[in-house]
DNA sequence: CGCGACTTTGACCGGAAGGTCAAACGCCAA
DNA sequence: TTGGCGTTTGACCTTCCGGTCAAAGTCGCG
């Protein structure tokens, strides 16, 4: 019998291992070629399974992709959720930038999967963007606004401030090839970026 | 007889029109799905031509893609080339940011095509990145360095300064869907971005 | 008008893609 | 040890994809 994909019922060792291997391989392939450019054969090969075997664990290519995206979103938004309204404004924002850059460094495939999805129209996650993401951003934007009104950080359009953090941190994962090609060897892009972005946001937010 | 793709020999009206229609349609499709995700059938349909007709003007899918990329690179690097070593530092950099944002606004498909290409490993343009692009960036980085040493703008790692301009401006084209989903209706992302980025770079570069 | 060059297309090819299925395999509890 | 359930796979189906080709259509110039 085919295992239920979403159910949390007890999974066998083998199921856990294979489902994980498939998702990992799919992350490789989807993040490199986008949904349409990815093929089940390639995912199966990377996962070390046969294609029918792969389709024993997931009902379709779409299902694998969807599972990856939903699994990803939580990790991805976690740093923003952690931004604490009661903390010190500058420290909180810099910590957010730092955590976001860490995500880019440690989960570049996830970043590229997400970028690919948005780039290609986001049809599979548009609803989530307009609801979950938008609500979260609006909530945090209000926190930023309050800090600005209290004169604790510089007054700026809060949404665009958040966009700038996303853009600057994700750039190092999504455009990794370009960054390394331009910098040449002998550089640690992420270490340099960490210092640079700290300077940037310190200056931007200073009163 | 098949028309030579690259030659500048006199083209008939029809050739010019159809080649342009194909490149335009291909830009649509490639920028939305990446190279592997795009299909000739789809390009042909968008261009309003039959597939064999399309292959009468271009020898292959690759050839269309390559033509787009090479045509794109010049437009894309032009604003950076225009950065004038003899101009006023702050004014020059802000003008660069402004022009780059204009490109994102006016040529979002080109931006996404480029992003797709980098994201998917840039195998087709890696050499150009490591030579043409790198040389240009190094040259301009030296100009920035000189300005910094002369105390005319704040001292920062020049390459990362350039990356930040790319990241912040291209974000509004590449992640357009997300930006609009988060902002909701009643916003003009590019106008707001223009003002925000001017503030950002003014503060970042101030002595 | 007529003719040669340019343009367009329907039919087709081999291979790759997503997905199905029945049969075979293997693990483990009774 | 064996029966049964979970797992794996070879063969196959249909559709799609990049690309070819010969034949038909059209354009413009003398």
Explain what this protein looks like in three dimensions.
The structure is a homodimer of 207-residue chains. By secondary structure, chain A is an all-alpha fold. Chain A folds into 2 domains: 13-59, Orthogonal Bundle (Arc Repressor Mutant, subunit A), CATH 1.10.10.60; 66-205, Tetracycline Repressor, domain 2 (Orthogonal Bundle), CATH 1.10.357.10. Chain A has helices at 13-37, 40-47, 51-57, 61-81, 89-106, 108-119, 126-149, 158-174, 176-183, 189-205. The first copy, chain A, is globular and about 60 Å long. Mean pLDDT of chain A is 94; it is low at 1-9. The structure holds a DNA duplex (30 and 30 nucleotides).
Biggest sheet layout of chain A: none
Structural class of chain A: mainly alpha
Largest interface: A-B, 53 and 53 residues
Helix content of chain A: over 70%
How would you summarize what this structure contains?
The structure is a homodimer of 207-residue chains. By secondary structure, chain A is mainly α.
């Amino acid at each position: 019998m085919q295992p239920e994909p979403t159910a949390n019922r007890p999974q066998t060792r083998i199921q856990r291992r294979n489902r994980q291997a498939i998702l990992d391989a799919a992350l490789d392939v989807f993040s490199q070629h986008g949904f349409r450019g990815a093929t089940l054969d390639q995912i199966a090969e990377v996962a070390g399974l046969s294609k029918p075997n792969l389709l024993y664990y997931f009902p379709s290519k779409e299902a694998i992709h969807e599972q990856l995206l939903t699994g990803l979103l939580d990790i991805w938004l976690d740093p923003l959720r952690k931004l604490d309204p009661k903390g010190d404004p500058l420290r909180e924002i810099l910590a957010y930038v730092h955590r976001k850059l860490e995500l880019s460094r440690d989960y570049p495939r996830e970043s590229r999967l997400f970028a690919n999805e948005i780039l290609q129209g986001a049809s599979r996650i548009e609803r989530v963007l307009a609801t979950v993401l938008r609500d979260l951003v609006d909530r945090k934007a209000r926190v930023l606004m309050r800090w600005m009104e209290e004169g604790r950080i510089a007054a700026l359009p809060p949404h665009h401030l958040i966009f700038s953090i996303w853009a600057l941190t994700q750039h190092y994962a999504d455009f990794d090839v370009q960054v390394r090609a331009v910098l040449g060897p002998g550089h640690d892009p992420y270490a340099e970026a960490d210092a640079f972005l700290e300077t940037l946001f310190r200056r931007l937010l200073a009163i």
